[in-house]
Every structure is written in structure tokens, then in C-alpha cells.
Design goal:
single chain; RNA-binding; elongated; alpha/beta; seven-stranded mixed beta sheet; about 550 residues; Ribosomal Protein L25, Chain P
RNA sequence: UUUCCAGUAGUGUAACGGUAGCACAUCAGAUUCUGGUUCUGCUUGUCGAGGUUCGAAUCCUUGCUGGAAAACCA
């Protein structure tokens, strides 16, 4: 029973290509990050698209680092990118680097010179910019454009040999200075940079530009569908032109709209700024939209893949509501995360008619969503418990299904209790809630016949362990900080991180493992923070809250 | 005001000339030993104007709106 599923526009193109027998039905995509920053959720969209398409059409995907600008690139980024792609659950066919092709690219450039389609230009960047004209005015050729092939060959060889300083000369394609497309007005192919490259070391002092590296790398690898974002649309004629003139494998470029998400920023430049200026801990700060940040926050690869599936692929600019991402992680964790009890903002509940010094072991299933509860664990219960401050109200409003004098609630996995009184300190803060319990109402063997509307969670005072808990809110206060007036950083949410130094957790949680998500009942999903947790001090990150249907009146 | 891309509920995304659907969000209600989950239901949409056609979200013209495009970045 194949489910009717509509295709996105790229799938339609691929199916059309397969139908027509193009490339004998072969599909080879590539994910081409520049190793100059950490991957974010926007890259995840591209990764899921490229790898997903290959999986769907029996093809393959190369991981290719677009490392043609040595001054911005670093192995640190290469390593993090590989780790993130793997963590997302994808396997690349080959790990490649544009720098692997430097020799071939150089030869291709020489071929262009020999065809009379490239020349060495001695102009300064400013001169080149002026000579290019504007979108409404054509550019003007300069004296260098008419250099002979022999002279260009010699000069280009000398550039490669290191005879000239940075910026002294560039190699330009000879296309069309009057083109309405600025990228066709004799784009730069090579520039001189006496810089150390993370892979090729000091072997080169000239490096190809994106336009003379990306398409050529695609062609060398025989990529069938080269998928990139919208801003490369104007580059496509150039992409095709080089391939045509050099008679290379005809890779085709297709463009889709990048992901934007509310309450965050999605540019490597801006994310780098947040890191460098210390607005966040690092690239993997749980508030960051980076893959590593989401991982540390407790997001699962599956939830991110699901998110990328749901947002779709199209050519129009979009702004995805972050609540969709939250929906995806809740959906996943609801089915898989074990339930535990933790009290984040404690007040003491005393069961006055329960024997002092007595401990009962209560049973709680791990996950009510699983068939058999996914097993369970024992939870110690005693006369004094920690409960959530917000679960008691001195003057409860109507439909408050928690504690208040005279009200009854069930203590999850334990007894029904009735609130009799409470104690206040000198400042008027409630410090203790006193209850009596219904002995016949014990979970699993309730014969009391009493039904209550509310159930609250608790942790036994003498058995409680402690942990630090970190609560996160959106990083920015406005939906689209990049589109606001002034500095995007002035819209940072000052309360995006709230640290609870001491929360009480049930003893079982002391065994929490890194990388595993838990549901703290009624509070949300949490996971151990891999950076801050130590054996003697647990630190939990809140991945996401539970959906809250309780609206105060 | 040069060229290119794009306009479908609040946000995304389908419908490929033939009943505008789905998801998230929102709001109601049912169920619930998590005010979670699950279930049910409601509200809300084709940018405007012309045309072609028996019939237009879809094709054509035009206007409007948004975005992109000039870096020795990718």
C-alpha cells in the first residue's frame, strides 16, 4: 500500500531525469560545506535533502569540503562537520575536498587561457569593481583584457610560482562585460593568497574562487544534481558556461530556499559573533541552532530528520515556526523517554498521619506510551516529600486541580492525600504543606473509590538526590532578529538561560546517562549536560517543556 | 527603478486546467494516576486587475508586494 505522497520540485526533476534515462538513471548528490564554522539546523535541511534524495533514488552522496579560502578554514571545523553529519545518521560515499582538485583546477584554468577565455588582470579590487559597471550600466574592458594568450600563460605560471604578492594580479574569465548578470562580467577565477592551507599546506599561493571550483568539482565527481540555496541562482549561467567551455561532465545546479526559523539567527557569521563575544558558551551552547547545540540540548537525530521532512522543500522564502521543531522532539521523546520525577522549585509536604521513619517502595513504569510500560523502577516514599511550589495555592481558584486547604490530589504512583493546613515563615512564604493520606488509595491497589482530578509529582525528602537544572528559553526576543533595526544582538533574550542550582531528583536519576532523554513528569524533557555534568554533580538541560494545556484564569 | 526568483489559512506545504487538502500553531470538548499523550470538533487561505476556457490557485498580459544579484567570501 504505497502511500500517496506529493513530490517536492527537486524530486520531480529527478524522477523526470530517471524517466528520460538521463545519466542512465544514476543519482549522485553532494553536501558541500565550507569548513569555516559549525553546522546548524539550516545545514541539516540541506543534509537531509541531499542524502535523502540519494537514499530515495538508489544513489549516493559525497561529502565535499569547499575549502578554497585558506584564511577562513580550519580542521576543527572539518572534524565537527563530519561528526555532525554522522550523528544525524547519514553516510557519505566519499570524503572529498575541493583542495584535492587544485592541480586539475589549475590545468583547467590554463585550458581557459589557451582558449582565449581567461586573462590575467593587474587591476586593484577597486578598479575591477568600477570597471564592472552597475546592474543598469555595462562594464568597460581594461587594457589587460586584450593580453595575448602567451603573456597570460606566462603571467599565470608566475602567479602560481609565487612571483607576485597578494592582490597584485588575478585571473579572470573573459565572458561578457555587458551582461545584465553581474556574475558574467569577467568573474575572477584565481587570486593570490600566500596563506597556509589546512590540507595543502604551503604548496599553493593561488587559490580558485568559488565559481571556478564548485562547478568544476561537481563535474569531476560527476555529480548529477548539485543542490544549493537560492542565492546561487545568478551563478547558474556561469556554472553552466564553465562546464560548457571546458567540455566537462554536465552537472546541473538546482536551488531551493534555505531554512529560516523564528527567534534565532541562521548565519554562520552571526553565530560566530555570538560565540566570540561571549553571548553564548560556545558553538554547542544548548541555545544555539547548531547541530552540536541541539544535540547538547537533548534533540535526537530522528527528531531533526523528521523536522526537515515536515518543513518541505520549495523555492519561496520561508520562516518556520520554532514550535514545529519543538513538536518534533516532543513527538519522539514522548514515545521513547523514560519518565522520572524531579522537583525544580521545592516546598515540603508532610503527611501528618504517615509514620515517621517509614519507607515504602512505590512502583512506577518507565513509559506509559510503551506496551508494557517499558519496565519500571522503584521509588522510595516517606512521610516528608518535596513537591513543586506551584502545586500548592493558599487561595486556589476554581478548577485548580492541585493542592490547597481542603483539596485532594494523587501523589503520582503513591497515595491520594488531602491538604489540611500549611505553614508560613516570617515573610509570609509558604514553607510546608500538611496533608493526611488515604491508606487504601495506594497506586496499583486502590480500593478507596475516590477519584481526584489532579496528580502531582514528588520526591521523598530523605531519599532525594540533588542536581543542577538548566532551563532554556528562546535566544532572541523577536521572531526575526536579522530583520530588525540595528544590531541583531540587541534583541537577545536576557533570560534565555535560567539555572536552578539545586533541584531534587528521585534516586533512580542518579544513574542518568549522557545522550539519553528523560521526561521529568509534568516538567518537560531533560538530558544530562555533557560539558558540565560530573560524577558528583549532575547537570540537566531542559530540552523542551511539555505542552501546557493549563491556562490560568 | 536593470536582471533574476517567488507570492495558497497565523506559519509551512500540497492540489500539475476539474470538490482548495495536510501539518504545526490557535481555540473548544472527551479521555487520562503527567493540566502530558490520545481522540473529536471549530475558526482562518489562492496578492490585485484584465484575458483564454464550459471550467483558472494552475495558462497569458499587467500591476503590486517580498527577496536576490555588483566581495581577490562560499
Amino acid at each position: 500500500m504505497a502511500e500517496e505522497r506529493s513530490l517536492n520540485f527537486i524530486e520531480e526533476i529527478i524522477e523526470e531525469d530517471i524517466r528520460e534515462g538521463k545519466n542512465s538513471g544514476r543519482v549522485l548528490t553532494r553536501f558541500p560545506p565550507e569548513p569555516n564554522g559549525y553546522l546548524h539546523i539550516g545545514h541539516a535541511k540541506s543534509i537531509c535533502l541531499n542524502f535523502g534524495l540519494a537514499l530515495e533514488y538508489n544513489g549516493k552522496t559525497n561529502l565535499r569540503f569547499d575549502d578554497t579560502n585558506p584564511v577562513k578554514e580550519d580542521v576543527e571545523y572539518v572534524d565537527s562537520i563530519k561528526a555532525d553529519v554522522k550523528w544525524l545518521g547519514f553516510e557519505w560515499a566519499e570524503e572529498l575536498y575541493a583542495s584535492d582538485y587544485f592541480d586539475q583546477l589549475y590545468e583547467l584554468a590554463v585550458a581557459m587561457i589557451k582558449k582565449g577565455l581567461a586573462y590575467v588582470d593587474d587591476s586593484t579590487p577597486e578598479e575591477i569593481a568600477t570597471q564592472k559597471g552597475t546592474p543598469t550600466e555595462p562594464g568597460k574592458p581594461n587594457q589587460y583584457r586584450s593580453r595575448s594568450i602567451e603573456e597570460n600563460l606566462t603571467l599565470f605560471a608566475e602567479m602560481k610560482a609565487g612571483k607576485y604578492p597578494d592582490g597584485a594580479k588575478v585571473l579572470r574569465a573573459k565572458v561578457d562585460l555587458a551582461s545584465p548578470n553581474m556574475h558574467m562580467r569577467d568573474p575572477i577565477m584565481y587570486r593570490i593568497k600566500h596563506a597556509h592551507h589546512h590540507r595543502t599546506g604551503d604548496a599553493w599561493c593561488i587559490y580558485p574562487m568559488y565559481d571556478f571550483a564548485h562547478g568544476q568539482s561537481d563535474a569531476i565527481e560527476q555529480i548529477t544534481h548539485s543542490i544549493c540555496t537560492l542565492e546561487f541562482i545568478p551563478h547558474r549561467p556561469l556554472y553552466d558556461w564553465f562546464i560548457e567551455e571546458l567540455n566537462l561532465f554536465p552537472s546541473k545546479q538546482y536551488e531551493f530556499a534555505r531554512l529560516n526559523m523564528t527567534y534565532t539567527v541562521m548565519s554562520k557569521r552571526k553565530l560566530l559573533q555570538l560565540v566570540e563575544e561571549g553571548h553564548v558558551e560556545d558553538w554547542d551552547d544548548p541555545r544555539m541552532p547548531t547541530i552540536s547545540g541541539l544535540r547538547r540540548r537533548g534533540y535526537t537525530p530522528k527528531s531533526i530528520r523528521e523536522f526537515c521532512e515536515r518543513i518541505g522543500v520549495a523555492k519561496r522564502e520561508n520562516m518556520i515556526d520554532v514550535s514545529l521543531l519543538e513538536f518534533c522532539i516532543r513527538e519522539d521523546l514522548n514515545k521513547s523517554a523514560w519518565r522520572r520525577m524531579a522537583v525544580l522549585d521545592p516546598i515540603k509536604l508532610v503527611i501528618t498521619d504517615y509514620p515517621e521513619g517509614k519507607t515504602e517502595m512505590m512502583y512506577g513504569e518507565n513509559n506509559p506510551e510503551a506496551e508494557d510500560g517499558d519496565g519500571g523502577r522503584e521509588i522510595p516514599f516517606s512521610r516528608e516529600l518535596w513537591i513543586e511550589r506551584e502545586d500548592f495555592m493558599e487561595i486556589p481558584p476554581k478548577k485548580f486541580f492541585r493542592l490547597g486547604v481542603g483539596l485532594m490530589v494523587r501523589l503520582k504512583n503513591a497515595y491520594i492525600v488531602k491538604c489540611e493546613s500549611f505553614v508560613k515563615d516570617a515573610e509570609g512564604n509558604v514553607t510546608e504543606v500538611h496533608c493526611t493520606h488515604i491508606p487504601e488509595s495506594k497506586s496499583g491497589g486502590d480500593s478507596s473509590g475516590i477519584s481526584v482530578k489532579g496528580t502531582i509529582h514528588w520526591v521523598s525528602v530523605p531519599h532525594a538526590k540533588t542536581a543542577e537544572v538548566r532551563l532554556y528559553d528562546r535566544l532572541f526576543q523577536v521572531e526575526d532578529p536579522s530583520n530588525e533595526e540595528g544590531d541583531f544582538k540587541s534583541y537577545l533574550n536576557p533570560n534565555s538561560l535560567h539555572i536552578i542550582e539545586t533541584a531534587y531528583i528521585e534516586p533512580e536519576l542518579a544513574k542518568a546517562e549522557p545522550g539519553v532523554g528523560y521526561q521529568f513528569m509534568r516538567k518537560g524533557y531533560f538530558t544530562l549536560d555533557k560539558n558540565h555534568s560530573k560524577a558528583d554533580k549532575l547537570v540537566f538541560n531542559r530540552t523542551v517543556t511539555l505542552k501546557d494545556g493549563w491556562v490560568k484564569k
